Each structure stands twice: as C-alpha cells, then as structure tokens.
Amino acid sequence: MRPILFQWRTFTIWSYPALLYVGLLTGVVAGNVAAHIAGIDAFRVFVAMLVLIALGLTGARLMYVASNWRFYRQNYRLIWHRNRAGAVQYGALLLALPFSVFLLRALRLPLGAFWDVGAFTMLIIMMFGRIGCLLNGCCAGRPASGWGTFYLPNLIGVWARRVPTQCLESGWCALLLAAAVAIWRYLPFPGALFLLVSAGYGGGRLVMEFGRELPSGAGRLTINHAISLLIVVASLATLLAHWPK
Questions:
Q1: Integer Rg of the chain from CA
Q2: Residue 18 sits in which domain range?
Q3: What is the rounded distance in angstroms from the CA atom of residue 47 to the CA atom of residue 64?
Q4: pTM of the model
Q5: If DSSP codes are grouped into helix, strand and coil, which group holds residue 58?
C-alpha cells in the first residue's frame, strides 16, 4: 500500500521498520510506566527489555529463515542482509521467553511480575507492527468478497479485495491492551496477566490465521496455527494450575 513512508532525495524511510521502531519505543516507555506501578526496579526492567527485544528480533528472523530454508540454504549470505526483510513474530517469543528465565534471575527480577509488565510492551509492539505490515503489504489476507473486506495489495503488489488480517490483528491487540489495563489490579498472582494476554492473543491469532493468504500449494493449517493452539493451551493450563482455590 505504502512501503515507503517518506522519501527525500536519497533519504528513505521504509514503513515497516519505521512503525516497528515506533512500537518498540512506545512499548518500552509503557513497560517502564508499568514497572513503576508494579513496584519493581524500573531500570533493571529496562535493561531486561532491551536484551529480550534484541533476542526477539533475532528469533523472529531465524524462524522466518527456517520457514524459507529451501531458499536460504543456497543463499547463506542473505540471512542477515539488511535489504532482505522477513520475520515471523512467534519466533521472537519462542527465543526470548525461555532465555528470560536466566536473564531475570541474573537481574534479580521476579519472573511473573516482569512478564505482566512485558505484556503491555508486547501488545504495543504488535499493534504498531501490524500497521507496518499493512503499509508494506506483508502478512496480507486472502482474497475474499463481501462485508468486511478491503481492496488491498499483498507483498508482491497484487491488489484484490482481501480479509484485512493486519488491521484485525492490530485491533485485537488494542482490545487486549485495554482489557489488560482494566483487569491488571484485580488478578490474584504475578504472571496471571501475561498468561491471560497470551491466551487471548493466541486464540485470536488462531482464528485470524485462517484469513491469511498462503503460498501456492500450502495446506490450510500452518505452523502458526500449531503455535497459537499451543500458546492457548499452555497459558490456560498454567493459569488454572496457579489460580487460588
């Protein structure tokens, strides 16, 4: 739709990196505010977030490379090439979450309370990131007709009436963010907010994934369906196991 957000002479600002940067900046600021409200060391939270964001970006890229390994196994130099974009969002969580156990222990931060704070950061990053996807054309919805569809391009510039998956996911993150702000103080234990947000996002993503345009020859079920379902089940099971009887 608008892959280049702004251009002046040889200076170019690309839409997706720009919106992702806005999301990262806003998310870290929101996490700092939430850390103060939660009564945990805001500076240590800031340090942990910077490390985990770097890991998350790496994990997202690696998962994209793994999902397109047929191409990258013959083009190793392009894996980290600055002009070769591509990332899978779930890869960020799959790398950052396990590593956080050791990082937070080293920083003497409580795991549950940190990830409650991190839930606000993640939702804001995803909310802005999906707007960047919309402008860039990536993560496009499948062609469809009827109410609720919009005339949109995909990543290669093919315009059609499509399911607006990027808008739906950004809006869903905004709703989860509003709900998180409303219920945080009423939850019974640290970490409950993160588990609820994870289950809510995973459930919404599981449904919205059916609206995405898939590569030719791909099946209806993807790795993202499986990860979404796993997140929902694991989050709800952990929540029920720790909920006060």
A1: 19
A2: 4-242
A3: 26
A4: 0.93
A5: helix
Output b/e per residue, 150-186; b: 16+ Cβ within 10 A.
eebbbeeeeebebbbbbbbbbebbeebbeebeeebee
Number of structural domains (the chain) is 1
* Digit-coded pLDDT (tens) for 191-240: 999 999 999 999 999 999 999 998 776 778 889 999 999 999 999 999 99
Torsion sign, CA atoms 60, 66, 71, 73: positive
* Distance separating alpha carbons of residues 218 and 10, to the nearest angstrom: 39
- What are the backbone angles phi and psi of residue 151, rounded to the nearest 5°? -80, 105
> What is the rounded distance in angstroms from the CA atom of residue 213 to the CA atom of residue 236?
29
- Separation in Å, CA 198 to CA 51, 61, 105, 132, 205: 21, 21, 22, 22, 10
Residues 6+ apart with CB under 8 A from 110: 40, 104, 190
CA angle (180 as vertex; 176, 184 as ends), nearest 5: 165
Q: DSSP letter at 40?
A: S
DSSP-derived 3-state class of residue 14: strand
- The answer to whether 187 and 238 have CB atoms below 8 angstroms apart is no
Query: Is residue 146 within 8 Å of residue 186, measured between CB atoms?
Result: no
Q: Kindly compute the dihedral angle of the four CA atoms of residues 184, 186, 188, 194, in this order, to the nearest 10 degrees.
A: -20
Please report the sign of the dihedral spanned by the C-alpha atoms of residue 14, residue 19, residue 25, residue 28.
negative
Distance (Å, whole) CA 169 – CA 131 = 9
| Residue range 61-79, pLDDT digits in tens | 999 999 888 888 888 888 8
